[in-house]
């Protein structure tokens, strides 16, 4: 009987939390579908054309193409470097690890605002301001430290005997990583990929400073659109939902793997 009461209480609490989380989302969606420029919800008259108008007026097709290019390239580079670094620190052992690893983690501790000015002038001197390679280098530099930290923890949670057996069988480090290490930490890799994509896609500050003109991504295009159409709340909400859709879609598709990856490494075998 006591067990049933706990289940009921848990379900009630979860239901209330779900309503609190979903209510703003529903209101935002109704605002985007409102025929009134003030964004007042109208359940009897949903205007889906707001999304089409916002897409064309804000030039979101071009901007989201730029965002997708930056995000995919940045995530691929971060995953590759994080896998190599995480495997080196977590399994192989690195000479001077007690010094090198804390130095690597400094990349997670220094805020963007503290380095943005010198970074801009350095990139300007070498011609990387206003280019996609320039913004990709910045995302790699800021994302790889966390990726190495994340995958190092995942590798250290695996049984050491697996890698020792592979070494005895004559497998080299890259072969061991490709055939054993990477498949065993796949949930952590999925989670890192989703987090990296989300952070890169949602970036506004770096893109605003380092990219101009046709290379501006969706977040900057949305900011410009907001400045020009401040009074048209329904179009602003529609544009915001369009820009947020890729991240939301990826999370819905891979939510189970994302949660599994968040839990990976919490229990060390």
UniProtKB/TrEMBL annotation:
Biological process (GO) annotations held by this record are:
transmembrane transport
Give membrane topology per the record. Multi-pass membrane protein
Record's GO cellular component terms: plasma membrane
User: Is the Transmembrane keyword given for this protein?
Assistant: yes
The organism's superkingdom is given as Bacteria
Keyword terms: Cell membrane, Membrane, Transmembrane, Transmembrane helix, Transport
Q: Which residues cross the membrane?
A: 12-33, 68-92, 99-121, 127-151, 188-213, 233-254
User: Coiled-coil regions in this chain?
Assistant: none
> Per the database record, which ranges form the ABC transmembrane type-1 domain?
64-254
Question: Quick check: keyword Transmembrane in the entry?
Answer: yes
Where found? Answer: Cell membrane
What family name appears in the similarity comment?
A: Belongs to the binding-protein-dependent transport system permease family.
**Protein name per UniProt:** Carbohydrate ABC transporter membrane protein 2 (CUT1 family)
Q: Which organism is it from?
A: Quadrisphaera granulorum
The lineage, from the top, is: Bacteria, Bacillati, Actinomycetota, Actinomycetes, Kineosporiales
């Amino acid at each position: 009987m006591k067990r049933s009461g706990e289940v009921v209480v848990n379900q009630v609490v979860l239901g209330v939390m779900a309503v609190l989380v979903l209510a703003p989302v529903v209101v935002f969606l109704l605002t985007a579908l409102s025929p009134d420029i003030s964004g007042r919800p109208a359940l009897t008259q949903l205007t889906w054309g707001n999304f089409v108008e916002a897409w064309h007026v804000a030039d979101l097709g071009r901007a989201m193409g730029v965002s997708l290019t930056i995000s995919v390239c940045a995530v691929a580079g971060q995953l590759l470097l994080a896998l190599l670094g995480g495997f080196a620190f977590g399994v192989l052992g690195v000479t001077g690890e007690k010094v090198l690893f804390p130095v690597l983690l400094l990349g997670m501790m220094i805020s963007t605002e503290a380095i943005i000015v010198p970074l801009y002038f350095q990139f300007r001197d070498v011609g990387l301001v206003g280019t996609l390679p320039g913004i990709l280098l910045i995302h790699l530099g800021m994302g790889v430290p966390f990726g190495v930290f994340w995958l190092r923890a995942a590798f250290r949670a695996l049984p050491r005997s697996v890698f020792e057996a592979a070494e005895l069988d004559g497998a080299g480090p890259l072969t061991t990583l490709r055939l054993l290490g990477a498949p065993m930490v796949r949930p952590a890799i999925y989670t890192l990929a989703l987090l990296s994509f989300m952070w890169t896609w949602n970036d506004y500050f770096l893109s605003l400073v380092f990219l101009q003109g046709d290379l501006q991504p969706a977040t900057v295009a949305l900011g410009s659109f907001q400045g020009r159409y401040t009074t048209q709340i329904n179009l602003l909400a529609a544009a915001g939902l369009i820009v947020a859709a890729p991240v939301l879609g990826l999370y819905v598709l891979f939510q189970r793997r994302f949660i599994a990856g968040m839990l990976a490494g919490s229990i060390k075998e």
